[in-house]
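Holo prediction. Input below; ligand is beta-D-glucopyranose.
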Amino acid sequence: MTEIKQIEEKENGICFFEMKNDNIRVITTNLGCHILSIFTKDRAGQEADILLGFENVEDCEKDGSYMGALVGRVANRIADAKFQLNGETYELAANNGKNHLHGGLHGWNQKLFQYEQLEDGIRFCYVSPDMEEGYPGSVFLKVSYRLKEEGLEMEYEAVSDQDTILNITNHPYFNLSGGQDKIYHHQLRMKADQIACVDENCCANGEFLDVAGTPFDFRDFHEIGERIHEDHEQIRHAGGYDHSYLVSETLDQAVLYDPKSGRKLTVSTTLPCIQVYTANFLAGGCNGKHGKPYENRDGVALEAQFLPNSIHIEKEPRVILRKGEQYHAVTSYRFEVE
Ligand code: BGC
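Structure of the complex:
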C-alpha cells in the first residue's frame, strides 16, 4: 500500500512530503524538488537512509553539491557560459570557473514549486520565466515523483513558448551502506561502451572514449574504488569519476550494489546518458544530515541526462527544445536486496 502525505509546512511555503510503502520511504520537498531521504531495508531487514542530503535544505542556495536536487534548466556544464540558438548568443552565469553549471546562480534547485498530490506520488509544477538565468523562453515544467512497489520514478514534462535548451536531471548521491562506509566497495555496472571525455575543468569536450581496457569499463561489475586512483588522464581531470556514460540500452542501464548490506539499486532511463560522479569535490560544503559536512566519496551520484555540453558538441543538439514541443523523460531508481 502506498501512502502519500504532507508532513510539514513552513511559513515560507516550503513543504515536506513522505511517500512510503512496505519497502521504501522517501522524503521530498517542493523547494527545488529535492529528494531528501530514501529509506530502504538491508539484507537483515534493517532500514537506513541511503541518500545524502542537507541538514537544512534551504542551504542549497549557498552549496554547490546539488544533493538530491532537481537540476535545470541545463544540467552539467555549458562551455564558456554561453551558447547560440537561432543565430542569437545567450550569455549565462559563469558559476563554475569560466563555465556555466547546473542551471546557474539560482537554478531550479532553489525554486519553490507548486504541488499536487497524486494517487501514488507528488507532482511539482513551476513556470520558469523567459530569460530566467539567461535562458530564452518561458518553460512550463512538471516534475512527478511516483512511488512504485520497488522504487521511485521521476517523470519530467516541459513545454516552452520559444525555442530553448533543456536538460533536466535529479542529482541524488547514494550510499547503499547507509553512511557506514565510503563508496569504494560499492560495485557498479554500466551498460555503456563509451564515456564523454572532459577537459581539466570537467567540461565535456566533444571527445569520446571507448571504455574497453580503461578504468572506465564497468560493463561488468567492478568496485568503484578498484581503479579510481589509476593514472589515467580522464581520472586526473576529474579527481575520480565525473563522466557521462553513453548508455546503450533502454532499461537497467546502471546497477549499484553494496555486497555488505545487500542493497542493490538499478537505474533505468529514457535519456541517453548517465553521469557517474563519485563526489570528488563534496567536502567542505554545508552540513549534511549528521550535522557536519560530508567528505569526498561519501556517496556516488547517478544522474540521467542528455549529453553534457550538448549544445557545443552535438551536430543536432538533443537539448534543443523547440517552441511548443513536448519535453518528456522518465528515470526510475529501483531498490532491491540480494
Ligand atoms: C558534476 C560535478 C559537480 C557536481 C556538483 C555533478 O553533476 O558532474 O562535476 O561537481 O555535479 O555540482
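The chain has one domain: 3-337. That is the main takeaway for now.
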